[in-house]
Amino acid sequence: MESAPFAQQLLGPWALDRLAAAMNSKEQEWNVFCSDARRNAFLIGDLSRNVYGSHYHLQIGGPGSLLPASYQPHDRLLVQVTGRQRILLISPDQAFSGLYPYPVHHLYDGFSMVNFEKPSLDIWSGFDHVKGQLVVMSAGDVLYIPPYWFVHEQLLDGTNTALWINLAPGLRPRDPIAIPLQVSRLLEERVAAAEGVPNVRHWLQLIGHGDEEHWVDLKTVVGYRRIVLAQEVRDELDLNTDMADSWEKLLPGFVDARLLLTPWLNQNFRERLYLLDKPVRLQDDRSEEERRYPELFRQRLEGENWQVPKHVSTLPIPGYNTPAAP
To answer: Domain JmjC, which positions (predicted)?
Structure first.
């Protein structure tokens, strides 16, 4: 292992011993065969990234294992090392017509909500019309997967080992079929920042049907901001899709059977077994100065490595959150 730094980084100093114990092997010496990392610059890097900005992920599993359909926003290479696996590729233009991806703020962001083995067609009615491309990967095969394509994996015979390589985006133009899924992520984040995560579905529905004017008071600052937000959502879709009034066609699909909060998804989530989750109460230890000037309290929390949400001003301040006057 000392002469194979790339394998050492992928597996760690303990992995081979544990694998040996799992396979009931008593061998003390292991030979790891890999290319010379010093001679091949593409394989040189730290624990997660090489000099080209790529990330590696080692995947090991047994026969019969299933990995739910998911997508990534970057190019990927799948290198099959040992065993075989069946890959189902589905283009991103079917994301909102049949795959129903989880919301951006959900813990399962990037995955399809549909159980491919036992789909509930009464809920996910569009899944019945989804079509994909099937490929069986054997040892030595390499598969390129474009950004935002859904990948469903089933590991077949033998011990299955594969290496995922995430590639830097480069300067290639965006694939038109992936733009709606890409823009939907941007819009969910933008609306959540303005109205809160629980209200994303509500406001995208209003904007998609052109009914937001009944929910705003133009005499207030909040009402003005909401009207601006609605127009920004429409403009984002029209500019990215090169279609007039594309928001009327796309926004209803963005919210269809989606953006519904699950019972265990909450702001202070810590335990996936929701019933076992117990609230944590911290004593208010702010000083008098920190009570008067919240920014001082924020700086102290950041100094203690707390994750403090970024402060967003609700008022336009020239030179701070709006362009300074010339």
So the answer is: 24-188
Handedness of CA 10, 12, 17, 22 (dihedral sign): negative
Q: Which residue has the higher pLDDT, 260 or 180?
A: 180
- Could you tell me if 69 and 90 are in contact, meaning their C-beta atoms sit under 8 angstroms apart? yes
Tell whether pTM > 0.70: no
Q: How confident is the model at residue 314 (pLDDT cuts 50, 70, 90)?
A: low
170 Rama class: left (phi>0) / alpha (psi -120 to 50) / beta:
left
pLDDT over 70 (residue 294): yes
Instruction: Locate the domains of the chain by residue range.
Output: 1-53, 178-255
Structure tokens given for 31: 């030979």
Residue 111 and residue 186 in contact, taking contact as beta carbons nearer than 8 Å:
no
Contacts with 214 (C-beta within 8 Å, 6 or more apart), sequence order: none
Q: Do 101 and 112 contact (CB within 8 A), yes or no?
A: yes
Amino acid at 190: R
- Tell me whether residue 113 is exposed, middle or buried, using C-beta atoms within 10 angstroms of its C-beta: 0 to 12, 13 to 18, 19 or more: buried
Q: How far is CA 8 from CA 13, 37, 54, 161, 316, in A?
A: 7, 11, 17, 16, 52
